[in-house]
Amino acid sequence: MSQPQIVPTYDALLLPILQGLKNLGGSGTIEEINDEVFRILNLSDEVLNVFHGNTSKSEIEYRSGWTRTYLKKYGLIENSARGVWALTSTAINLDDIDPKEIVRVVKGQSANGNTKDDFANIDNANELVASVEHLEEIAWHQKLHNVLLSLSPDAFERLTQRLLRESGFIQVQVTGKSGDGGIDGVGIARINGFLSFHVLFQCKRYQGSVTASQIRDFRGAMQGRTDKGLFVTTGTFTRDAIKEATRDGAPPIDLIDGEQLVHRLKELKLGVHIKMIESVEVDLDWFTNI
Fold this sequence. Notes:
Layout: H1 14-23, E1 27-29, H2 30-41, H3 45-48, H4 59-74, E2 77-79, E3 84-87, H5 99-108, H6 129-150, H7 153-166, E4 170-174, E5 185-191, E6 195-204, E7 209-210, H8 212-222, E8 229-233, E9 236-237, H9 239-245, E10 253-256, H10 258-268, H11 284-288
Parallel strand pairs: 6-8, 7-9, 8-10
Antiparallel strand pairs: 1-3, 2-3, 4-5, 5-6
């Protein structure tokens, strides 16, 4: 009997992330990198569906975020403002990379050099700035996700309706009829003000994972009504569900998981307020030149 897989530690993800970026041609989005790493490590759905605390982020995604921070601090990867991560050099030889050396060097960059191996326990005020920023993001992210989970099904449907309207959809209606195959609503997506197509959507407010069979059921309900579907959840989608949503020869279904949902709400400033803190510095050189 095979031993059950466990979630890889952040240091165990260092080389797979570098290999994943090489496989992707040297750069990729977080989603592309994660998918490639999961493929390289052949991680089971059981591992991928382990959540980090009460958030919609999986534990493996959480640890991968810290791993990217370490690789960036070490100088092996970089990221743009558009969320694309890239190798700093395509000539990187993975055989020359020592994960233990990366951890040692990055720990030495901190103010007191006692970064803990378990990222979830980092609580030192003098830690890396990137670590603090990451923890702050987890804080608001978790709070928003908990709010979404506390909404009633009707309220979550109305939120999805508002989200679609704010994203450019028109004639968005919530149906939510029982026995309607899981169809919660319909809307019309417009592209550049000229092209438009009808979209049926389903929204599930829970922390579990949407399976491939649920995607197939949703597509079955779409049959003969539209060629485009949208599935929104506060949880995640299994790998098989993601494959099923884009299966060749079948009407495509776009997927929005809990992670994407909270960030979209932030982008649209729906229930999220972003406060800009003013920073004032005194220019001593200016005064000395008077």
